[in-house]
Amino acid sequence: MERKTRVKINRKEVMLAKLRKSCSCTPKKLKNFVMDFLPVLRWLPKYQCKEYIWGDVMSGLVIGIILVPQAIAYSLLAGLKPIYSLYTSFFANIIYFFMGTSRHVSVGIFSLISLMVGQVVDRELLLAGFDLNDDAPPAWGDGSLQNDSQSNTTAFNLTIAGMNTQCGKECYAIGIATALTFVAGVYQVLMGIFRLGFVSMYLSESVLDGFATGASLTILTAQVKYLIGIKIPRSQGHGMLIITWINVFRNISQANLCDVITSAICIVVLVTAKELGDRYKHKLKFPLPTELVVIVVATLVSHYGKLNEVYASSVSGAIPTGFIPPKVPHFNLMLQVAVDAVPLAIVSFVFTVSLSEMCAKKYAYTIRANQEMFAVGFCNIIPSFFHSFATSAALAKTLVKTSTGCQTQVSGVISAMVVLLVLLFLAPLFYSLQKCVLACIIIVSLRGALRKFRDVPARYHVNKVDTLVWVVTMSASALISTEIGLLVGIVFSMLCIIVRTQQPRAALLGQIQGTSFYEDDLEYENLSSVPKVKIFRFEAPLYYANRNYFVKSLYRLTNLDPNLEAARRKKYEKKEKQDPKNGDHTTANGLGIGETTLQLVPKQIDFQALVVDCSSISFLDTTGVNTLKEILKDYKDLNISVLLACCNPSVIDSLKRGGYFGKDFGSMQEMLFYSIHHAVQFAKDQK
Predict the structure, then answer these.
(1) Three-state secondary structure call for residue 84
(2) Do 113 and 217 share a domain, yes or no?
(3) Nearest 5°: CA angle at 417, between 411 and 423?
(4) Are 36 and 371 in contact (CB under 8 A)?
(5) What's the pLDDT tens digit per position in 90-102?
């Protein structure tokens, strides 16, 4: 077979042409840019109202009803007031409506993202000298970083944005959250501009599942104190999960009986409703709004039973109505959280894109991953000016959305209107809502992630290495911290790949009787060996990291080290020259000279050709080429020919550039074959 002649491409001219094309501005190009940046302009004019409107309105109302209690509950995870969670849910749905390419994902507040934001907020509050357990009622001002000292029982003079200002705990917390959100959004937009979406490829399914499960354990642990109504310090740093549980058991005697009973009732009701909903979901037109019912009933019971006054049960407190004036995130705070924003940006993007692709595949349409990066980036950047924190697509709400007839992102606007209704009129009604009820909603929402433990045996049966990656990522996320857990998972999964290529499977092949095919001699029965020919397969790329393993495996399986054999032959020849008569003289060690000579006799080699099956070698680096050249030379010294079979074009090119076939490639046809069988036939025909 002859290779096609490649047409040489002038890369400079190609780059200049692309640059001219990208820099040119025509009305058509400008229109396409705007339409691509705001996909709503493409699909909204084609919106089929009669066909789509009922499904969109229905799913929008259901998601909106679910969003309200979840937003209030997830504020506990973020360490912020409920009003900011409602802002986040409202703005995220509106912005994604304009910029998203997925018709079905639900973008908004997400438990894992809220946890990551809350950990950064708590750390910065501690560094600034605030008391994380200060439950004094805040004063609701303009929500800016210049709130008065009444927003916390202790106020601090902080140098922010070059000015010495007095800032309370609440305004500083939301300042950190908005700065973190803004920086994460900027990272995501920059990733979109430079087309760095490939970063998500390094987050395998095992890493993401392990990260989600480990973070879920952290979330559950953080909510235990609200479940039983005890006041313990909010643990920070590494080992937060263990420290929190130690503090819980130390203070278990201080549990609030009212909160314990309320939590037990709420969990039973929520879990029962969820299980019934899962069992009869094919009969239900839309999911039961259990969280909303629980919140309404619990709020009424708490208000009329005066649980806060009589039993000292912790409640949500005042939630104002309306919108706080927008505020630019502070630059100094951005510098403090710039590193923390990196994992937040990556996790937010990965979850959004993976859910978008899942929905697109299921409903037969396409998304643009790069545009999704822009969409989720601006879902963080713009809301950060309106006292909101980071967002992402959420699996549970996305599944509910698709199951209730969602057709387009018009449903997101309907959900935003439901949240707006609460923001403008209904928020103060949740004053008496117990925090333990919110904790129950959070914990029950973790059912899906915690059920991953049941899948471990099946996962182990499918792939042991992936299971190990899951366990390591989950353990690191839970026992150290979520950010470090994610990093550990990525690094460990890469190490697993490297180790698997460093010590891959190597085997000798035998011929399937009556065919021209060859397979692993240890794996299959009734294979016949080829006389005078050894067929060696190496199932990985050949590069610097596995070069030694390749050589050792080859020598071990063929039972021949050509270097040792060559040295033995030289010694034998030298001995023969020194003592040609081989008399019965005795040496110093007591052996006869004849016996000593027997130890130096060359081995009887049972093959005259070595065929290397290169079908699994995807690439060669310089070390790999040099290794094959050394093997060719060493075996040639023993009059054993080395034949390569099933090389792909890139491997052939590497061998040519490395001089494996000589300068003029004249011997290439006698060294390279397109199938193992052709190489074996050639070896048999050799004298």
Answers:
(1) helix
(2) yes
(3) 145
(4) yes
(5) 999 999 999 999 9
- Of 227, 285, 577, residue with least CA distance to 437: 227
Q: What are the percentages of helix, strand and coil residues in the chain, rounded to 5?
A: 60, 10, 30
DSSP state of 620: B
CB 355 within 8 A of CB 398: yes
**Does the residue 25 lie in any domain?**
no
End-to-end CA distance of the chain: 26
Q: Is the pTM of this model over 0.85?
A: no
> What's phi and psi for 581, nearest 5 deg?
-90, -20
Q: Is the residue at 9 inside a domain?
A: no
Q: Please count the structural domains in the chain.
A: 2
Q: How far is 69 from 519, CA to CA, in rounded Å?
A: 60
Domain identity same for 292 and 398: yes
DSSP for 294-328, written as a single string: HHHHHHHHHHHHTHHHHH---B------S-PPP-P
The H or E element containing residue 291 is helix 290-305
Stretch 421-439: mean pLDDT:
89
The DSSP bridge pattern shows strands 532-538 and 506-512 to be antiparallel
Q: Are residues 342 and 430 in the same domain?
A: yes
Domain of 523, in residue numbers: 506-565+604-685
In the block, tokens 């009212």 appear at 258
Please give the backbone phi and psi of residue 199, each rounded to the nearest 5 degrees, phi first: -55, -35
At 144, the amino acid letter reads S
Cα-Cα-Cα-Cα torsion 430, 435, 437, 442, nearest 10 degrees, comes to: 110
Q: Is 271 left (phi over 0), alpha (psi -120 to 50) or beta?
A: alpha
Same-domain status, 455 and 510: no
DSSP for 197-232, written as a single string? GGGGGGS-HHHHHHHHHHHHHHHHHHHHHHHHT---
Q: What is the pLDDT of residues 577-625, one digit of tens each?
A: 776 655 444 443 444 444 444 455 566 788 899 999 999 999 999 999 9
